[in-house]
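Example with several molecule types.
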Amino acid sequence: MNQATTSTTISRVFKWSMLSFWRNRLLSIAATLVMTLTLLTISIFVILNLIIGTTIEAVQHKIDLVVYFNENVTEQEIDSLKKQVEVLPEIASIDYIDKAQALQKWQSRNIKEELKQIATEKDNPLPRSFEIKVKNLDKLESVAAYFDAEDIKPMVRKTSLHENQATIQRLLNMTNFLRKIGLIFSGFFILVSILVIFNTIRLAIYSRRNEVEIMKLVGATNSAIRWPFILEGMMYGFLGTILSVLFLFLGFRFLSPVVNKYLGEVMTEWGGSLMAYFWSHLWQIILWQLLVGFAIGAICSVIAIRKHLRV
Amino acid sequence: MIEFKNVTKTYNEKTKALDDVSFKVAKKDFVCLVGPSGAGKSTLIKLLICEEHPSSGKILIGGYNITKLKLNEIPYFRRKIGVVFQDYKLLPEKNVFENVAFALEVCGAIDAEIRRRVPKALELVGLEKKAENFPDELSGGEKQRVSIARALIHSPKLLIADEPTGNLDPRTAWDIIELLLKINERQGTIILLATHHKEIVDRLKKRVITIKNGKIVGDQEEGKYIV
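Resulting structure tokens for the full complex:
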């Protein structure tokens, strides 16, 4: 085939698929909307995962394991313990808070004046402590267990892990739950969209079965018959992407202030706000949606037309 | 040009649609294929256009055994034969010109070629003045002419007409037959005419192959409808 006929063929394939899209416009709209929903669900799922990931990281930095020491423990003992603990691989940082620092923290806390007076420079009952940050939340317990060991236990008055544990566990549970829900929804929508798009294309093919029959009769190759339908399927992916990005933009715009309030400083990692994230990743979002949309549309078409291409 | 060698076609093991059929058709021949419904005419045509494969035997066209064609070779083979049917198989939303052009379009012909060849085909069937009309605006005979023009667009050596006059009144039917005769004489295209019409067969005085129960029961030059 020379270049002239190739370009003629391509333009004809385009014309054909547009025509088919228009002729079955109600079905086409349905397929496009389902595609939009699918792409939107997947995008939201992925973005949600990103947000949760960032949040966990932020919380991870915030949550400390605090180990309070008994009054009778000497500074040397604490110092040698610190050296021991510092080398543990799970630990991101460890800070020793002495009596003076503990008092400072106490005073700076937003509590009633009478409560503040409980501890003064002269009479300071506040315990000395380690403030520990772990690299990975999952390892928190093993670090805490370290202070439960026989030789260290007598030094320790209390570890504050037990207070945070529930929060952390809840967060982890919620995360896993959200991930699962997201995965199930995405999977469900992909399945539904594949079925609807598959059916739409089957109907489109059915409504043009005379044309397909004649095409075969006059010697059109299978690929000449197949391509317009593949293109039509990809068309749903294309329009679905446009709509889904549009909805995503509206959703982000609406949610951005809320999320910023919720996450606050975490958002700096994202360029300041959800909106900024959207703009800086716009091409990535569009490209991925196109890719997924094209794939679903094209695969459905190929399967739907297979039956009609048998000789 | 065309040769059937001991062709048998069985559906689901028991029903023999064609039973050991052998015949030859020479270049520029005009052959009538007659027989009652279910005799095997349609099966024979389906085998000829590679829509079905024979259970056994060979079909040679121009020296090629078409039963050995690969799937991707069939489209190119089909461009060398034209087929018309009783129900015309025209696309209602395309006008006459576009219907004929469609056969070229789907095979990747460029627009210049389409503009050159479609009017010629329409002229051959006497429809050059109806190029802009839609199938709904045409009579049955005219519709069949459009379908013949489309079948001839690739200049095939063989034109298969499967009951082309089945839906037409006797007068129009004979017009279509005369058109087929003209094509046969002028272009040397082999015509294989499957028909029920006794009057047409008797009046044509061409070679008649008669099929009954999947077997050839008669093959005569200048034959008559004998079933």
